[in-house]
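Re-run with default settings, no changes from the original entry. Doing this only to confirm the output is reproducible before filing.
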Amino acid sequence: MAALGWLTPRRRSATARSVLAGEASAEAARKSSQEAQEAQQVADQEPEFPVIGDDKAAAFFDLDNTVMQGAAIFHFGRGLYKRKFFETRDLARFAWQQAWFRLAGVEDPEHMQDVRDSALSIVKGHRVAELETIGEEIYDEYMADRMWPGTRALAQAHLDAGQKVWLVTAAPVEIAQVIARRLGLTGALGTVAESVDGIYTGKLVGEPLHGPAKAEAVRALAAAEGLDLSRCAAYSDSHNDIPMLSLVGHPYAINPDSKLRKHAREKDWRLRDYRTGRKAAKVGIPAAAGVGAVAGGTAAAIALSRRRR
């Protein structure tokens, strides 16, 4: 039997360090269990949201980087470039204007007007129906697989509760409506380009639906639909949409930029971040860092188009 002694566990006296380790582990386990119970109690106490059958409530979702990865207008531009709506030099000029805006970090009125004029000149003279048809094609080509599943689930929860869900975006209303329709949402609020007899004039009706204009659009739609904004929800990634988020009783910061993240924490708004790894780590990088992304995206669009010729 002595030969089998190695099978028998040896009794060792506990050292002070091993006792400390054991007590610390037990305390951590106890604390973790207690925190889990408290979190569950808080969750149980929170009212159900969205509230099923509340016809005075609706949800308003920003589009770019909230519902969809990237900017809708950029993907739309890629599709128009592929269809020879404009030349390479026009694409490069438009991309540089966007890069300048990101670098400066301010909305200079004259520069923003130049950017808008460049974009509107692309569609001037084309029929609205033509752009709507092309929008459907571009959605399938560049946008369909770029939707955030987490945000789509949030939108679906409102729909399942019997509530209306609207996109609210600075993107052209035609492309916004295509995206809303394809996602099964109620509709979309977007920037309206002027048209006469179904043909774009190259001008806007008012201003782009951006910043405070979004809040005004939501306010107007809520009044027309008989909604109670204190029971509504809004979702966005950008601090530019703080006016819209501040209108509703249930604001959410989705994939927030650094300014919105800070504001949301100060106001105790709910946050959701569906980015992972490298993308999530970019939160808080200065706007100037966007220059490389714009330039790279422009080069990619040009290269992609040439490769397909």
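The longest helix spans residues 16-45. The CA atoms of residues 60 and 234 lie 5 Å apart.
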